[in-house]
Amino acid sequence: MKQEVENINSDTTTYLTLERKYESLIMEVRKYEGELADYNLALDKYRSDTKPDDIEAFFNHIKI
To answer: How far does the chain reach from its first CA to its final CA, in angstroms?
Structure first.
């Protein structure tokens, strides 16, 4: 019985550690998804012969 309690406590600690890591990684993934969407939008504008000044203004807006 004592061993089971220790295993449960160990599993709980592991779970909490992995949960924190998951939250950290999911925030990083969402950040990269947003950046990728911005780059894809800029690339679409480039392909559609948008004026370079408009693209630069868009870039500066993203940068801010």
So the answer is: 58
